[in-house]
Amino acid sequence: MIIDDQYYDVIIIGTGAGGGTLTHKLASTGKKILVLEQGEFLEKESSQLVDVEVFKKENFHVSEQWYDSDRELFSPQTSYSVGGNTKIYSGVLQRMRERDFEEVQHQDGISPEWELKYKDFEPYYTQAEKLYQAHGQTGDDLTEPPRSEDFPFPVVDCQPQVEDICDRISKEGLHPAYLPIGVGEQGRTDSEDTGISPAITANDNVTLRTKAKVLWLHTNPSGKEVKAVEAQIGEQSYLFMGDIIVLSCGAINSAGLLLRSKNEKYPQGLANSSGLVGCNLMKQLMTVVVQLTSTSNSGLFQRTRYINDFYWGDENFSYPMGHIQNSGGILQDVIFAESPPILSVATKLMPGFGLKQLAKRSIGWWLQTEDLPRPKNRVSVEGSKLCLDYTPNNTEAHDRLIYRWIDVLKSVDANKQNIYPRGETPISVVAHQSGTCRFGEDAKTSVLNLNCRTHDIDNLYVVDSSFFPSISATSPALTVIANALRVGEHLIERLG
Question: Which residue from 165, 220, 270, 331 has the least number of CB within 10 angstroms?
């Protein structure tokens, strides 16, 4: 094993929405920062799907394998690269709704209250929108929370077919709104081009090590501090020393690393005196519904519109149902491509259409319903196995959202389409993962304090979607980014 001869003020593990943003925030402090990333740099185009063959392949799945509730192997759809999962996300930058931070009664149980509220996150949402160049428009969505500033950039142009459908939907009394989308000069903004690359280019105090798979966190004898990070780079193991250690590996891998790093002081895993590390895994219920259009499109356009009229329910269902957005061009939408190959099924249901032709004559609608935190939905480590025990909940609300939306599409469909193929995302699609290290003031009921420092270990932080007590039905990326900026302010104060 090689012991690195450098000593760092901060070691950040992971470069996704949390780690990449935190690196940006801390880079100008002059403090010595080491960033460890398991993957490598990817070309921007690597996150654009341009061939219909993607529906027959498992693109964007990592080589390692995890285990499901039945201990069957699967390859997770996630990104090990500089930029993490922001290299394959849709670019949607949504704020959670003000009520999402409160206790909410759902059909299947309670969505718990956050100990920090929307007003605590609002300034950081505003900063995050500026940093990631969010394009949007206010005033169309009845659930929209209050804002201190307008969007920094105007809306992204809408595909004519989507605009036409939204016009028809508006006439039905619904309220299509413009999705907030992060777009820069090179396309969709991500944490590599927004956070990591500018930080290492402009600041010689920031060091990035790629192909660095972190294996273990080593504490001092008292267990009060992490003193070293063990990582494998190529065939060699390294020890890196630092004052503050930040995990930003994603909710699943951050929990897995804590559990693997167990020692005599922490036989159940680091920072796990509560027994909650890995528990309450959430990943939302997500379904794609396909609608045919009368004219063809490129299949390569950006997501642009959403509907929240059923977010809190409707006249026939008094519980929250969820969020709807157009999925973007089917030939480039990564998560759509990783869901079941429903277009292949659709060609059988719709004779006369080939797969590629059908893809260019279709609009996908992405439906998201909040799943509720359940202790038995969890990440665990069994020997060398990373296991996900996950059973969907709140399914009736999601089913109602699907059928309600199909009814809307039928009512506005000029083609009189009767078949709306749909596909639910399987366990392998771990998009929107969250909740495995929830934050709170009480060390008995949470893993992290409100600054996302572990209750048990003074210099160990988790800055990714692990901290969520609940996930809402919105896309979580902006909340992760905003929280990284918030925690970054705290770390700057701590670092002096």
Answer: 220
Low pLDDT (below 50) residues in the chain: 45-57
- pLDDT given at position 301: 80
- Provide DSSP, 72-126: -EE--B---BTTGGGGSS--B-PPPPGGGGS-EEETTEEEPPPSS-HHHHHHHHH
| pLDDT at position 252 | 98
At 193, give phi and psi (nearest 5°).
Answer: -80, -15
How crowded is the C-beta side of 302, counted as CA atoms within 13 Å? 18
Question: What is each CA distance from 100 to 79, 96, 230, 420, in whole angstroms?
Answer: 28, 6, 38, 30
| Predicted TM-score of the model (pTM) | 0.95
For Cα atoms 393, 19, 472, give the angle at the middle one, nearest 5 degrees: 25
What's the angle, vertex CA 71, arms to CA 248 and CA 422, rounded to 5?
A: 75
Which pLDDT score is estimated for 85?
Answer: 92
Residues of the chain with pLDDT > 70: what percent?
Answer: 90
* CA distances from residue 174 to 140, 288, 303 in whole angstroms, order as listed: 10, 20, 19
Residues 125 and 135: beta-carbon distance below 8 Å: no
